[in-house]
Automatic annotation (TrEMBL):
Chief subcellular location: cytoplasm
HAMAP family in UniProt: Arg_succ_synth_type1
Assembly: Homotetramer.
Catalytic class of the enzyme: ligase
EC number: 6.3.4.5
Protein's UniProt name: Argininosuccinate synthase
Any one GO CC term of the record: cytoplasm
Binding residues annotated for L-aspartate, in chain numbering: 119, 123-124
Length: 399
């Protein structure tokens, strides 16, 4: 049997043309693998057939939406993962899942290599290849767009010459990646960071400037996992889909950011993640109520490092796994309800309650019945500031 390469197939121009380019450049049979992570937009059966029509010897579609939500979105939520404090890792958490299925499929079919449609300029090439290397180091990774100089003009010409069934034959003004956790838009006029986004960019969110009544919801968490919305039980995937609708209708989750790419350049990106922003906002507030002070302070640094590792394509790294263990331990008491007001592009916590709450009314109140012994504060302050006092005396003596 001829050697095979398994291609991460999106159904778009680059990966469709990439099937033929891979065959021509390597002499290998190409197996197309499409992984459904909630990107929507096209019927996956149509995508499967398109790969075959473009020359794939086999076309495989995997429905990984629940796996994506349970094993990738939930850990990101527990980590309150926001790269540069703003980006909810929309693309970054989908790549290791796709890479996992790429590696598994390649091994199952006896293929010696995998391929993706990334350019040499972005983060995703690193994410795919680093993940495959960590999971199946014997596999070789190929990137036709990067390695074989497959420019967009060449791709369009190749599709026309070979009569490939590619609907996307004209140059789109944007590069778009999306899944159930959110949507990423770049290039076109957005490459000038002075240009403001236009309303046509957005599909997951409604215009937040349009007057509408606020939406108030209650999200229930169990050990950091959303398990109900307004009292109705939900799976993690159902929670994300529902919050995309409820928060998206209020314009929540729009992010316009210049970010630091792994390859060393700055890139202007526009994101939509209504469920991501709403759920992280709620989860963070529940942690404020249920996680003790020193753990919470330390976790913020872990969250930043976790987000950087995932953004940089190191989902399967040893450090990320160790940070996962710490984060998981912090979630054992993160259970309770958060009331969230969604309105005019914002998600605002208006109430919180938990049986595991560390908030003690009798200690916190300033009214009669206060159980906090304020007389202890004077001695505490003296001891707390004693090192500073001693150092100040030394500094004064040295003048």
């Amino acid at each position: 049997m001829a050697e095979r390469v398994v291609l991460a197939y999106s159904g778009g121009l680059d990966t469709s043309v990439g099937i033929g380019w891979l065959k021509d450049a390597t002499g290998k049979e190409v197996v197309a693998l499409a992984v459904d992570v909630g990107q929507e937009g096209e019927d996956m059966d149509v995508i499967r057939q398109r790969a075959l029509d473009c020359g794939a010897v086999e076309s495989i579609v995997i429905d990984a939406k629940d796996e994506f939500a349970n094993d990738y979105i939930v850990p990101a939520l527990k980590a309150n993962a926001l790269y540069q404090k703003r980006y909810p890792l929309v693309s970054a958490i989908s790549r290791p899942l796709i890479a996992k299925h790429l590696a598994a499929t390649a091994r199952a079919l006896g293929a010696d290599s995998v391929a993706h449609g990334c350019t040499g300029k972005g983060n995703d090439q690193v994410r795919f290849e680093a993940a495959v290397t960590a999971l199946a180091p014997e596999l070789t990774s190929l990137a036709p767009v990067r390695d074989f100089a497959l420019t967009r003009d060449k791709a369009i010409e190749y599709a026309a010459v070979h009569n490939l069934p590619i609907a996307q034959s004209k140059k789109s003004p944007y590069s778009i990646d999306q899944n159930v956790w959110g949507r990423a838009v770049e290039t076109g006029f957005l490459e000038d960071p002075w240009n403001a986004p236009i309303e046509d960019l957005y599909t997951y969110t409604q215009d937040p400037s349009i007057p509408r009544e606020a939406t108030e919801i209650i999200i229930t968490f169990d050990q950091g996992v959303p398990v109900a919305v307004d009292g109705k039980p939900v799976t993690p995937l159902e929670a994300v889909v529902l919050l995309n609708k409820l928060a998206g209708d209020q314009g929540v989750g729009r992010i316009d950011i210049v970010e630091d790419r792994l390859v060393g350049i700055k890139s202007r990106e526009v994101y939509e993640s209504p469920a991501g922003i709403a759920l992280i906002t709620a989860h963070e507030e529940l942690e404020n109520v249920t996680v003790e002070r020193d753990v919470a302070r330390y976790k913020r640094g872990v969250e930043a490092k976790w987000s950087e590792l995932v953004y940089d394509g190191l989902w399967f790294s040893g450090l990320k796994k160790s940070l996962d263990a710490f984060i998981e331990d912090t979630q054992k008491y993160v259970s309770g309800d958060i009331r969230l007001k969604l309105h005019a592009g914002t998600a605002v916590v208006t109430g919180r309650q938990s049986k595991q709450s560390l908030y003690d009314f009798d200690l916190a109140t300033y009214d009669t019945g206060d159980s906090f012994d304020q007389s202890m504060a004077k001695g505490f302050i003296e001891l707390w500031s004693l090192p500073s006092k001693i150092a100040a005396r030394r500094d004064q003596a040295a003048k």
